[in-house]
């Protein structure tokens, strides 16, 4: 497959189970190796061993990840230090996002002790604090967040895109992808099955088209 992504773009990646969505994200993040081809970052070949390359992106797995023992705020601060340097000040809107995500009550609780959805939100806050150029998010809409969390996620991602961040996420839900992405990429059979912007498309028509690509017959017809 051959794809390029631009700053400020929100891309939803779809595909049946095993199509290669997570593998694609892992390769873009430099976490997985590849047998053939290359990943280029602003024209430069991505080198998995270069910290400055890896710091430009973050891969968030579906189950999230965090630093054991750290509380919600400390965890976010660790991500910020690792990605932006020890001198970097945390974003000034940290409290606002704690509130929007519904995390104020657990701001000083160890992430280990949080519920699955709360833990995922804590990691999203950390991603916001790390603020890499490229956000690679695996299955955010299946990570156990409540409706408020998903709304906050959309706002967080839109704000990041407005700052020029490129966001690529995977999902199994055509409806969510059609309504929350600037572009949709469907992978499968070792290639790209569909790659198109959402701006011009009628959402219902797009959802039907995605349903066909993903082998859904009936429910969306
Ligand atoms: N470590 C691995 N070693 C060998 N094959 C793997 C490995 N990880 C994934 N695969 C294979 O690569 C293919 C793509 O897997 P991947 O996890 O990228 O799919 P996906 O589209 O994210 O699927 P899902 O929707 O189920 O999460 C699958 O056939 C899987 O079995």
UniProtKB/TrEMBL annotation:
Name this polypeptide is given: ABC transporter ATP-binding protein
Domain ABC transporter: 1-214
GO MF terms, alphabetically ordered: ATP binding
UniProt record similarity statement: Belongs to the ABC transporter superfamily.
Record's keyword annotation contains Cytoplasm: no
A Pfam family reported for this protein in Swiss-Prot or TrEMBL: ABC_tran
UniProt key word Nucleotide-binding: yes
Source species taxonomy: Bacteria, Pseudomonadati, Verrucomicrobiota, Verrucomicrobiia, Verrucomicrobiales
Coiled coil (residue ranges): none
PROSITE patterns named among the record's database cross-references: ABC_TRANSPORTER_2 (PS50893)
UniProt keyword list: ATP-binding, Nodulation, Nucleotide-binding, Transport
């Amino acid at each position: 497959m051959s794809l390029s992504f631009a700053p400020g773009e929100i891309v939803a990646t779809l595909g049946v189970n095993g199509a290669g969505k997570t593998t694609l994200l892992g390769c873009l993040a430099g976490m997985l190796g590849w047998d053939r081809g290359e990943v280029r970052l602003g024209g430069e070949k991505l080198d998995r061993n270069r910290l400055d390359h890896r710091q430009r992106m973050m891969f968030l797995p579906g189950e999230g990840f965090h630093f054991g023992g750290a509380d919600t705020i400390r965890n976010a601060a660790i991500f910020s230090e690792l990605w932006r340097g020890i001198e970097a000040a945390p974003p000034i809107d940290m409290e606002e996002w704690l509130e929007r995500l519904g995390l104020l009550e657990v701001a000083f609780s160890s992430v280990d002790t949080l519920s699955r959805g709360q833990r995922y939100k804590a990691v999203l806050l950390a991603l916001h604090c790390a603020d890499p150029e490229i956000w690679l998010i695996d299955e955010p809409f299946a990570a156990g967040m409540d409706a408020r969390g998903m709304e906050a996620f959309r706002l967080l991602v839109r704000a990041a895109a407005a700052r020029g961040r490129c966001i690529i996420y995977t999902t199994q839900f055509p409806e969510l992808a059609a309504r929350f992405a600037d572009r949709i990429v469907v992978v499968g059979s070792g290639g790209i099955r569909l790659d198109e912007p959402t701006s011009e498309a009628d959402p219902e028509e797009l959802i039907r088209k995605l349903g066909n690509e993903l082998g859904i017959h009936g429910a969306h017809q």
